[in-house]
Amino acid sequence: MTENWTGNAADVLPADAADALLVGRVQLPEGPTVVVLRDGRLHDLSATFPTMASLTETADPASAVRAADGPVIGSFDEVWANTAPDARDDALPWLLSPIDLQVVKASGVTFPVSMLERIIEERARGEAESADGIRATILDALGGDIRDLVPGSPEAARLKQVLIAAGLWSQYLEVGIGPDAEIFTKAPVLATVGAGSDVGVLAESKWNNPEPEVVLVVASNGAIVGATLGNDVNLRDIEGRSALLLGRAKDNNASASVGPFIRLFDDRFGLDDVRSETVTLSVDGDDGFRMEASSHMAQISRDPADLARQASGAHHAYPDGFVLYLGTMFAPTDDRDEPGHGFTHHVGDVVRIASPRLGALVNRVQHSEELAPWSFGIGALMANLAQRGLLGRTSA
After folding, report:
1. What pTM did the predictor assign?
2. Contact 243/249 with Cβ under 8 angstroms?
3. Cα–Cα distance measured from residue 33 to residue 25, given in angstroms and rounded to the nearest whole number
4. What is the number of other CB atoms lying within 10 angstroms of the CB of residue 238?
């Protein structure tokens, strides 16, 4: 790829950036800092919000941010230009993942297409060359389009019985059309990477792909306060060997990206906009390979608000809030290397996940084992905030 693989700063922002309330985090020499984007410049809000969690936990985050102010760190153009790992000057600001203390949750099998691909992974036992034949068998057994099937409905229950009788029932169909969603922990707190950074896949994986998703930002009281984009990097061969290997397939060094900014809900953007958003994906490789796809949130089988309710409530509380990947309909089947083996990442692939109202999340693929290890955890953040005199500060 070209040296400027991250692209231009203007192409990272939402189409209506001038009207969007965008908050994020920037690494300064003194430590990670909460920022808001105003007129192309990033303002330091750490005196009011020492963490992003303290911002999203306010009663009205949008109003709280509008009332807050702080010194200008620099233009977004300057910060974005310094974010790519190859050209980064650590003495200058660079963009981080926009979340910090929020728990990183994800929902799976929320689109019919991805549900079918999970079943294929399971039956292929991680062998990519078996996928095409299994896919044809399952589609024939389903006997029609299931995009309008409501999970947990009587129609879904009847389909379940038909599939059991045909010997095709799967744990993925259970969460795809049953009453309970698949909700899992994607990454530890503070382990996500942001736009302009490298994402990681295990070197041993021979069948993997990006998963472009909308990510909800949810406060501890269950209120959905904003949204961003995410890449739920997936190792299909490892998960396909056993669902009990989900952690190894999903949670590795730099295997979860979020960003570029959180767009807070206000009178210009809300949950209905999320429901109608279209997420596009492009993958560009050093080998000249290019792939494009799109994911339409209108085709999700479970409403985003329902997924947030299933993630938290009386059964599970998150005192610093959480973010929730909403799942993807994208499951690449085009061959890249060998016929019948489908798509898999190559080192150096540039992945661009974008939507009109949330901007673009751009990352480059590397092996997890070769990236800098995750070392800045909760203890390090608390120590840093205390040293800067920010610990204990909260918004009014």
Report:
1. 0.88
2. no
3. 5
4. 24
